[in-house]
Amino acid sequence: MRDFLVLAPPALPDRFAAAIGEIRPVLRMRGDGTDDALIAENADRIACLVWMPFGGPLKAAMMDRLPKLELVASMGAGYEHIDVAHAARRGICVANTPHAVTEDTADAAFALIIDTVRRFPAAERYLRAGKWRPGKPFPPSASLRGKTLGILGYGRIGKAIARRAEAFGLKVAYSGRRKQDGVLYPYFATAEELAANCDILVSVLPGGEATRNAVGARAFAALGPDGFFVNIGRGSSVDEPALISALHERKIAGAGLDVFAHEPDVPAELIAMENVVLLPHVGGATHHVMQAVGDAVVANIRAYAEGKGPLDPIAETPWRG
Asked: pLDDT at position 78, please?
């Protein structure tokens, strides 16, 4: 196994830095003004860069400071924060951790579905405010009975949501880049067609320019005044002003959102609405997921160090050996 250094952000948990350090030496950035010198002194030996999605975008300029860079080991399933096109031009492989977040994110999606349709958060606020008094029950909500769940983005998480939907007696339909072999649920080619054929539309779309504003006014109009929208994917995939308008004008019945267009800023209009359930991007924020993500990053780096190539290269930047 050849010699190289791993460059890691200051926010990388110590236990993962230690695990990576057992494979190859780790340089920890500090974020205190000394990183430029650290990188300059070691640039010719840094072949692997660990990146965390909440550490900001990974731009071409950063990659170009590392002439020997071959692997970006990204923590998390999403990678829209990385300039993948530039990595591909440079021959840099980007590896993510797509399996780690699946089940817990699907749990969060279904919690949002239930809370949005049944209005449980609003009911709890009603109780806490002392409004539940004799003769003043909380109003009845919509039900999941007889509903169709439309899943926009039918990858690992979408499939995990579908399994949960079946357990709750929901019908399922889906949309994605293509109709998938072996999937028996009805397929619709566009978000608008899917919305017109479901009662609850849940988006699991990834971020990036390819999906920007993919769900907009036409989809909400197709979903209709009795329909609900849930987003557990990325906020950039939704035309947020169109969503706010649809909610204000009662063109849809409600929404459950874990992600937003300009995180962590959440529009005041959404916060003020009683028919919206809001979460601060916590779909995959569990101790289990964090451990699994860290373990997957370590496994990607170990496989790379052994000359096998990372286990989870993204499609845009395949490992070339």
From this structure: 87
